[in-house]
TrEMBL record:
GO terms for molecular function: iduronate-2-sulfatase activity; metal ion binding. The keyword Coiled coil does not apply. Gene3D superfamilies: Alkaline Phosphatase, subunit A. This is Uncharacterized protein. Keywords: Calcium, Hydrolase, Metal-binding, Signal.
């Protein structure tokens, strides 16, 4: 900064008590977390949400945050979703559709959210699960995102837990003895976050250096391993079977995935030799146990989130720090007889998203606007008063700084603004003849999906080669149990939605 400008700023702030301090950013992600937060329940919540969640810290956080109850990711699997929202670009631009590809290699050398802050003077650092790890993050946790004198932190127990338990158990509640001998990875990430906040606080408070700190929990990803004290909030008698343990009527085969992550990953499930086909009946007690363990894992994440929030308060950083909480996608808990993510259904694509921005969201804002994870990039940039990144043009592979999302700050400031009329997500399936992509769109009332051949040259849909279509009417079928795409009475709706899907996101990016 120019000395003269600095002087004017200092003078301005002392004379007129204007706070010129830049805000820090604390960017917190859970993994595989659908919006199972007690304070998020309302009439429009997916009906399958548990009605007795124990999430006191996230509940308290919502009271001073902008909460987006209808937030959707762009692809319901970890690596592609994270590559998309971290770069503010959609999967057909990052070209990351799987867990191996690295956006800088297959899409372009795009700036990420932390990188954008780093290049504007922030100290940026990360810990836990932020990008999908390994080669899909360049083998170095995407080094350009982080300040070069910071080391990316992974918990010593790495993904979740101690191997002998993690490999054999899809879920496990551990006692305090075991927890002491083998700490849970997310607690290690939390302890690290707290010590780093203590280190960064003095310079952040004096205004010498702001931080962008990314904290990624591994839970409630499988295996559901949590301290057993969290089971007390979930007596087994409170746990229900899903209301729709069957695949949708007229569901095309493309919409289905085979539950492989759960079926093949853990000894206790493997030994049961359960089929991955739709409408497979799972042992009833196992369904209840897994649902309960998922909820308990969320309560555990809630408690760790609370530890970090408490430290932020204790260090006096709260008023100077923007806090975001989100996840990479939702999860299916045997609804439709599906588990995990890997689909375009509501439960897989919808996930929590909230921002606590001091001075803007202090009174709490509950928004039912349709929003997308690709919007996070420009939202954080605007909340921090950094210069906005422009909207990407067509074919933005060579442009380092641009975004395919829209800042949510205007709808935080004025909830009467309409926001986007529709949001977009996609999921690929592989067949012998090649790749088929399910392009899906959520409007206020409908979910509409076309499964089409993928144009491997243009990295986009070939709308002329349609394989299957789905339409779910959320007015009378919130659970997406009946595919109406071929119902005569929906023909004109299908026509209209088809037009909007084929136009894509660009006409509604305001
Ligand atoms: C990608 O961008 C980073 C940050 O701007 C730069 O340091 C690096 O050299 C670029 N890599 C390539 C291959 O262009
Ligand atoms: C704690 O759990 C371990 C592993 O399940 C078990 O071997 C041990 O007996 C338990 N200890 C107590 C005090 O319950
Ligand atoms: C699954 O069961 C539902 C409800 O009985 C039925 O409507 C649907 O056609 C079945 N789907 C498949 C793929 O078997
Ligand atoms: C697993 O189930 C399939 C049928 O679903 C059966 O063919 C196979 O023999 C079973 N394998 C074992 C090890 O039980
Ligand atoms: C933080 O901001 C709130 C609301 O503006 C104010 O009441 C509180 O005193 C501030 N706390 C500190 C530590 O500055
Ligand atoms: C909020 O948005 C509505 C709808 O566009 C508009 O009519 C109204 O004037 C806006 N309010 C403010 C305070 O800008
Ligand atoms: C596939 O993409 C290429 C390159 O963008 C384009 O020239 C071609 O027209 C596309 N084909 C179809 C069927 O959309």
């Amino acid at each position: 900064m120019q000395p003269i400008l600095l002087m004017i700023l200092i003078l301005g702030s002392t004379l007129f008590h204007i706070s010129t301090a830049r805000k820090n950013v604390l960017f917190i992600l859970a993994d595989d977390m659908r919006p199972e937060i007690a304070a998020l329940r309302d009439n429009d919540s997916p009906s399958q949400m548990h009605d007795k969640m124990y999430t006191p810290h996230l509940d308290a956080f919502t009271e001073h945050s902008a909460v987006f109850r209808r937030a959707y990711v762009q692809q319901a699997i970890c690596g592609p979703s994270r590559a998309s929202f971290m770069t503010g670009r959609r999967p057909d631009t990052t070209r990351v559709y799987n867990l191996q590809d690295y956006f800088r290699r297959v899409g372009g050398n795009f700036s990420t959210i932390p990188q954008y802050f780093k290049e504007r003077g922030y100290r940026t650092l990360g810990m836990g699960k932020i990008f999908h790890s390994g080669q899909s993050a360049g083998g170095n946790n995407d080094a350009p995102s982080w300040s070069s004198d910071e080391t990316f932190f992974h918990s010593p127990s790495r993904r979740g837990y101690w191997n002998p338990i993690k490999k054999e158990h899809s879920w496990y509640s551990i006692n305090t003895t075991l927890e002491r001998e083998h700490p849970i990875g997310d607690q290690e990430v939390t302890d690290h976050a707290i010590s780093v906040l203590q280190r960064l606080a003095p310079k952040a408070i004096s205004g010498e250096e702001n931080f962008f700190m990314a904290v990624g929990f591994y839970l409630p990803h499988l295996p559901f391993i949590f301290p057993e004290r969290f089971l007390q909030y979930y007596p087994i008698s409170d746990i229900k079977q899903p209301s729709n343990p069957y695949a949708p009527l007229n569901m095309p085969d493309y919409a289905w995935h085979s539950n492989g992550e759960l079926l093949n990953g853990y000894g206790d499930i493997k030994s049961l030799n359960i089929s991955g086909a739709p409408n497979t009946t799972w042992p009833s007690q196992l369904v209840l146990d897994l649902r309960r363990a998922y909820y308990a894992s969320i309560s555990y994440v809630d408690s760790l989130f609370g530890q970090i929030m408490t430290e932020l308060d204790n260090l006096g950083l709260r008023n100077d720090t923007i806090v975001m909480f989100g996840s990479d996608h939702g999860w299916q808990l045997y609804e439709h007889t599906a588990w995990c993510k890997h689909t375009n259904f509501e439960l897989a694509t919808r996930t929590p998203l909230m921002f606590r921005a001091p001075g803007l969201t202090d009174q709490g804002i509950m928004s039912d606007h349709l929003v997308e994870y690709v919007d996070i990039y420009s939202t954080l940039v605007e909340l921090a008063d950094l210069p906005a990144a422009p909207l990407c043009p067509e074919n933005p592979a060579a442009i380092q700084e641009c975004t395919e999302g829209t800042s949510l700050v205007p709808i935080m400031k004025n909830s009467s603004l309409p926001g986007k009329p529709r949001v977009f997500m996609q999921y690929p399936r592989y067949r012998q003849f090649g790749r088929v992509m399910g392009y899906s769109m959520r409007t206020d009332k409908y979910r509409y999906t076309e499964w089409v051949r993928f144009n491997e040259t243009g990295f986009g849909p070939d709308w002329t080669a349609q394989e299957a279509v789905e339409l779910y009417d959320h007015t009378n079928d919130q659970e997406e149990n009946v595919n109406r795409a071929n119902d005569a009475e929906y023909a004109s709706i299908v026509e209209q939605l088809k037009g909007h899907l084929h136009e894509g996101w660009r006409p509604v990016a305001n």
